Fold this protein.
Amino acid sequence: MRRRAPCKEPVTIHRYNPTVTQEAAFFDLDKTVIAKSSTLAFGRPLYKAGFVGRRALMRMGLAQLVYMLFGADHDQLERARVGLLDLIAGWHRAEIEQLVRETLTEIAEPLVYAEALFLIDEHARQGRRVIIVSASPEEIVRPISEHIGVSEVIATRVKTDAQGRYLPEMAQYAMGPGKAEAMLALAEQDDIDLAGSYAYSDSITDLPMLETVGNPVVVNPEKELRKEAEEREWPILEFQRPVSIGPTIPRPSPWAGAAVAASAAALIAAIALLRKRNR
């Protein structure tokens, strides 16, 4: 009599369950998680590597100064978008990625806000997905995000040709309404509860991003966004302590000093306030 072959145990593959609702915390990058424009911060390394000339470097420096003092409105960011596309057309994506990673520690290390790291850690502890959302190119945003322990990003993507060289055309422009659209698409895809989620930004151009979630928080806001936040009674946080960090996000315990402790207490109070408003 012929024996029947024993049945093999089926291999279990764990996949994301779209029926499980989750919350997220969306963080703008520039002047929210780090203390300056991420794109402009890499101007000098690009100059040293021969990607930009002295005149372009001076324009980037002036733009950085204006951005730090006055912020940027929609028209300014749109001009920056066009200028960026013109500037990088023909550059090789792999070369830019390598340059960013090689100079990341030197450029980004002293710029990361301790208060932002505290909040990122707090949201992760609460089981929320943490996502960096930035109008800067993904080749710059992703290495910075990974450096502080955040693996998910929504960022601007520039199209490339078959050789991997940039074309003067956007695949995704994550600025203003573009951020909100990308967040809505991600929420629909992964069943994220936006009403229970959080968003942090400093700029009035990110008003659509803040309006997309149930818990908007403004950070180091420019004048126009501060006024909007006060009228809507949104929490306003001031981040003031850029720190140097290791390769991954640190826990709050090593942060010594009264100033950091006060900042942490203020952040905890803001989180408690948001939780109370949600009840």
Remarks:
- The chain is about 45% helix and 15% strand.
- Confidence is low (pLDDT under 50) at residues 1-19, 64-70, 247-262.
- The CA atoms of residues 67 and 76 lie 10 Å apart.
- The first strand starts at residue 24 and ends at 28.
